[in-house]
From TrEMBL, chain A:
Residues 34-143 form the Aldehyde oxidase/xanthine dehydrogenase a/b hammerhead domain. Keywords: Molybdenum, Oxidoreductase. This is Xanthine dehydrogenase family protein molybdopterin-binding subunit. Residues 1-27 are annotated as: Disordered. The keyword Oxidoreductase applies. GO terms for molecular function: iron ion binding; oxidoreductase activity. The keyword tRNA processing does not apply.
From TrEMBL, chain B:
Keywords: FAD, Flavoprotein, Oxidoreductase. It comes from Roseomonas acroporae. The keyword Metal-binding does not apply. This is FAD binding domain-containing protein. The keyword Membrane does not apply. Residues 1-176 form the FAD-binding PCMH-type domain. InterPro entries: CO_DH_flav_C_dom_sf (IPR036683), Diverse_Substr_Oxidored (IPR051312), FAD-bd_PCMH (IPR016166), FAD-bd_PCMH-like_sf (IPR036318), FAD-bd_PCMH_sub1 (IPR016167), FAD-bd_PCMH_sub2 (IPR016169), Mopterin_DH_FAD-bd (IPR002346).
């Protein structure tokens, strides 16, 4: 591990070896490993009613009639039964962006298979499903739009008739590509695509809402990454004040972006609890999740890249089309993916000329949700495919062309062609490290096929990931919700423990541990004596929540600042107790020292809370608790980066791909807990392997989803995971507290690209290239067949 | 999804189960439940009554003679994998069982349940077809025997009458000189196969069968490859499968044919192994 540069923060104390940088065990693990976590489905409540939805069986239709048996009038509700409810509308300031009205229950039309049409309630879920079977709806079917091409075709059926077309958003940018195109000695053209996926948190969506008569509040326990935003969204679309909504998420089992949006089902359940003043719960089952919930990742690219004869990129001309689904999710808009795709395509490369045409197309599929990496797994696959194509065109190795195009350490901070400000790092060094780890030179000197006749290849993917981007960036994407300062509350208790409260929520990132580690470093309080409470809007300060790899940067920074203030107040009281000057006070080994004297944190706590006679004159009347806010000095994002290297074997008879070795060289700035960084990276890479090889949610010509169970939708399992090897570098961000950058998404970005590049390296003797993900056996065989088949290959010694 | 309402009854014997099936056309047999359970939850199957065979007497019998071992239909994949059930096929059954889904599924799923469910991708369907095994079924009219080749009629379709229960599978005892091979293509560990190749050569018993499984319907015998195997050996059989596969799987695409042919070649290559 290497470390460079200093970050920006207050005084760090040595602490008891459990603070920033320690491989501390996670505080949250004991309850989860013992099966004693409490998720929304675990909550017991008298009189609770369970919810099931009647969902559209067709992709695009006008609703002609809806009926329910009279005996079930109160158990089945249609849109018009939900008095006062408003459609979910996500406004955007982007010019030309078109708004969709996403109703809690379908109104005049349905626009995807699985769209909720009726909400049905009963004492158990099974009975609620029985009730749902009593719903009868008459549909007048309309032609479904099931691809971008179909949606863009003249005369296409319109999802939202008032738009006049099927485009949520279309943007164009060009800074002089034509001049480059006219003179570039090398041109390559690629058409690429990535499949529609559904992201898979282990816990599906879940909501339990009830009316708390004592508090006079609608209390919402839900699986969310963004409780304070959910409070705002539920209040807005129910048309009630935020003051009477409390969102209190229990344990949340994964999110990955799927739980940072407000969905119609959740709004409908909240309406029921608000109007009936009774508890209602909906637990999304895996089929609902696959068919009508999580949709993401589907991109199409047409790229023309210009280079010199060494492979130095001169310009990139790209057309990016996003299959965005029927509606915009709230609050991240239907334009986020498109904006991110266009903005991030140049990746970690130094590029001067760039033209980009981006379209977000409405289709009769469930709405596109942000998923770990947001657009970047697709653009990484695209740009890395371009780099390898250029390398082949000029007769060089892919890594050589990468190395000569990457932004250098000397150029940092570097503002790229799309205006992204790369704060720090050594991108070529990460490539070099990964190349050494995977053993590229030895591999090239060895055989191209293994003993079983499989073709062998190595692929690289270098990426940089904008993390914890703040106000200006989100505002530039036109979002209705823009993050600013994140707050944290830190308090020393009377008996000397530390309580931290923050409005972000943890769904598995380990924030209960890492935030405590930051506070430990700043106050010297032992990790075991620090308690972290997250998410409940009733007792945490505001945060827009956990997304965009921002938690440890933003809330970690806020905890650092609040802890610093509390630490100073602790010192002032401790100094008085020891009769020394505050500057003489230090924190060490879980106690407070001044020379040979020492006091405990409990003695300081007791002095403030219960023995005020021991306090110094002029003591800070704020006491031993403080709420502080934070955002980085420069909040355009901190760029973590890395290189993934994959070595694969491709069976040309079956089309199957095996990952033989997988190496990751990564740099996310200062690591608060290297074990958690590794967990985030390996978990993300596992999802990336799903993108690369397995996950796909196809639709037929009628807009019917073909992967409605986990038999059809393949997720990588333990036997599909390679033994990841990882190397850390710590280039501290110059802009953040402690030099921290975000790390939540990076692992998921590069695997699709690295594995595809490895497959293409392996198939090079056959002349075959793969331009679509996932690399299913059928796609691999098709690529080989297109190149003339495995039999046409020149004889290669095994 | 949660299952729709159904009644539940435990059958004390196969004959009792057959009697319930005869009296109640909404009744359905429950073996290990590894396929039926999800189907119930998805409400794709909606039986009025489940007849649980778990404790039915006689379904975990082992009987036979020099030529066959009759394995009770209630034995789990795990019992076969672990050798609790002796393997008349000289290791083939244990090997196939080891590759079925995941251990949790193997712990509950049963031989008879899998064959009666007749998922085209199921391992036992192809294996028993390749071994030329015989199904023993009991119904109101008594007990009859059906060759595996006539038992699986297509995807999820068998020769079982409405009131019949599969009680045992008679598996030929392979001779000492027998050879077998089994290869399947799965997208990942534990998934249903996309292609299965099975080959059995036992000259002493007159067995030479090359079988493609996971075809989307019933397994198919490759007659030319089987003849080549009998007369010329596995290499000759393997050389011909790519040419023959199209004639036995006329509705498959080029990729599927290539995958089936690859599995058949790999199964045949295993005939070189001494087991």
């Amino acid at each position: 591990m290497d470390a460079t540069q200093e970050g920006q923060a207050g005084q760090e104390h040595a602490g008891p070896g459990e603070g920033i940088g320690a491989r501390a065990r996670r505080k949250e693990d004991a309850r989860h490993l013992h099966g004693r976590g409490c998720f929304t489905a675990d909550i017991r409540m008298p009189g609770i009613q369970e919810v099931a939805f009647f969902r559209s069986p067709v992709a695009h239709a006008r609703i002609r009639a809806r009926e329910k048996p009279a005996a079930l009038a109160d158990s089945i509700l249609f849109h018009d039964d939900l008095a006062g409810i408003l459609p979910i509308v996500t406004r955007s300031t982007l010019p030309g962006y078109k708004l969709s009205e996403y109703p809690a229950l379908a109104r005049e039309k349905v626009r995807y298979v699985g769209e909720p049409v009726a909400i049905c309630v009963a004492p158990t879920r099974a009975e609620a499903e029985d009730v749902a079977e009593q719903v009868s709806v008459e549909f007048e079917e309309l032609p479904p739009v099931v691809s971008c091409a179909a949606g863009l075709a003249p005369g296409a059926a319109l999802l939202h008739e008032q738009w006049g077309d099927n485009l949520f958003l279309e943007t164009r940018s060009d800074n002089g590509i034509e001049a480059v195109a006219a003179t570039a000695p090398v041109t390559v053209e690629l058409a690429l695509e990535t499949a529609r996926q559904t992201m898979h948190p282990m816990e599906s969506r879940a909501i339990l809402a009830f009316w708390d008569h004592r508090a006079g509040q609608l209390v919402v326990h839900m699986a969310t990454q963004v409780p304070h935003l959910m409070r705002a969204g539920i209040a807005e679309f129910l048309g009630i004040p935020q003051a009477i909504v409390r969102v209190a998420p229990p344990d949340v089992g994964g999110g990955f972006g799927y739980k940072c949006v407000l969905m119609p089902e959740e709004l409908a359940v909240a309406w029921l609890a608000w109007h009936r003043k009774a508890p209602f719960r909906w637990i999304e089952d895996r089929r609902e999740h696959l068919v009508s919930g999580a949709n993401t990742r589907q991109h199409e690219y047409r790229i023309r890249a210009y280079a010199d004869r060494r492979g130095r990129l001169l310009g990139l001309d790209a057309e990016v089309t996003i299959d965005t689904g029927a509606y915009s999710v709230w609050p991240f808009t239907a334009g986020l993916e498109a904006a991110q795709a266009g903005g991030n395509l140049p990746g970690p490369y130094d590029l001067k000329a760039y033209r980009c045409h981006v379209r977000a197309v409405a289709t009769n599929k469930p709405p596109f949700c942000p998923y770990r990496g947001v657009a970047r797994p697709g653009v990484c696959f695209a740009i890395e495919s371009v780099i390898d194509a250029v390398a082949r065109a000029v007769g060089r190795e892919g890594w050589e062309v990468r190395a000569e195009n990457l932004v250098t350490a000397a150029a940092m901070p570097y503002t790229n062609v799309t205006g992204k400000h790369y704060d720090s790092g050594d991108y070529p060094a990460s490539l070099d490290t990964a190349r050494g780890m995977i053993g590229f030179e030895e591999f090239r000197a060895g055989p191209r096929r293994d003993a079983r006749g499989r073709y062998l290849g190595i692929g690289f993917a270098t990426y940089c990931e904008q993390t914890a981007h703040g106000t200006k960036v989100f505002a530039s994407w036109g979002l209705p919700v823009v993050p600013g300062y994140d707050q944290a509350h830190v308090k020393l208790t009377p008996d000397g423990a530390l309580e931290i409260k923050a409005g972000i929520h943890s769904f598995g990132q380990g924030l209960e541990t890492t935030l405590a580690q930051v506070a430990c470093t700043m106050t010297g309080v032992r990790l075991d004596d620090i308690r972290v409470t997250l998410g409940d809007t009733a007792n945490t300060p505001f945060s827009t929540g956990a997304y965009a790899s921002r938690g440890i940067v933003m809330v970690g920074g806020a905890v650092s600042r609040a802890s610093e203030v509390v630490a100073a107040r602790i010192k002032a009281i401790a100094a008085h107790l020891m009769q020394v000057r505050p500057e003489a006070v230090t924190f060490r080994d879980g106690r407070i020292h001044a020379g040979a004297a020492s006091v405990s944190y409990a003695e300081v706590g007791h002095a403030w809370y219960t023995r005020p006679d021991q306090l110094p004159d002029g003591v800070d009347t704020g006491g031993l608790e403080v709420t502080e806010g934070y955002r980085p000095q420069v909040d355009t994002g901190l760029f973590s980066y890395g290189t993934h290297a994959a070595r694969v074997a491709v069976d040309a008879e079956t089309g199957q791909v095996e990952i033989l070795d997988y190496c990751i060289s990564e740099d996310c700035g200062r690591m608060v807990n290297p074990m958690i960084v590794e967990g985030q990276t390996f978990g993300g890479a596992g999802q990336g392997i799903g993108t690369a090889l397995f996950e796909e949610s196809p639709y037929d010509a009628n807009g019917q989803p073909l992967a409605s169970t986990l038999i059809d939708y393949l997720l990588p399992g333990p036997t599909e995971m390679p033994r990841f090897r990882i190397h850390h570098t710590e280039t501290l961000s110059p802009y953040t507290a402690h030099g921290i950058k975000g790390v939540g998404e990076g692992g998921a970005i590069a695997p699709g690209a690295a594995i595809a590049c490895a497959i293409n390296d392996a198939l090079a003797p056959l002349g075959a290239v793969l331009r679509a993900l996932p690399a299913s056996p059928e796609r691999v065989l098709a690529a080989i067949a297109e190149a003339g088949g495995a039999d046409a290959a020149p004889a290669v010694a095994a | 999804m949660k299952a729709a309402v159904f009644d539940y009854v435990r059958a004390g014997s196969a004959a009792e189960a057959a009697a319930i099936l005869a009296a109640d056309e909404g009744a359905k047999l429950l073996g290990g439940g590894q396929s039926l359970g999800p189907t119930l939850n998805l409400r794709l199957a909606r039986p009025g009554r489940l007849v649980d065979l778990k404790r039915a007497e006689g379904l975990r019998s082992l009987a036979g003679d020099d030529a066959h071992l009759a394995i009770g239909a209630g034995w789990t994949h795990a019992a076969i994998e672990d050798g609790v059930v002796p393997d008349p096929a000289r290791g083939m059954l244990a090997q196939v069982a080891h590759g079925i889904a995941y251990r949790a599924v193997r712990n509950r799923g049963t031989l008879g349940g899998s064959l009666a469910h007749a998922d085209p991708s199921a391992d036992w369907v192809a294996t028993m077809f390749a071994l030329n095994a015989t199904m023993v079924v009991t119904g109101r009219a008594g007990t009859r025997r059906v060759a595996a080749e006539g038992f699986t009629l297509g995807a999820f379709a068998t020769a079982l009458a409405e009131d019949e229960v599969l009680v045992a599978v008679e598996v030929p005892r392979l001779s000492a000189g027998a050879r077998w091979g089994y290869a399947k293509l799965c997208r990942k560990t534990g998934e249903f196969a996309k292609a299965i190749g099975a080959a059995v050569l036992d000259p002493a018993r007159g067995l030479a069968r090359v079988v493609a499984g996971a075809t989307g319907g019933a397994p198919v015998l490759l007659p030319a490859a089987s003849a080549a195997l009998r007369e010329q050996g596995w290499q000759a059989a393997a050389a011909g499968v790519a040419g023959e596969i199209g004639s036995v799987l006329p509705n498959s695409d080029a990729a599927a044919r290539a995958q089936h042919a690859a599995m058949l070649r790999r199964a045949l290559a295993q005939l070189d192994l001494t087991r």
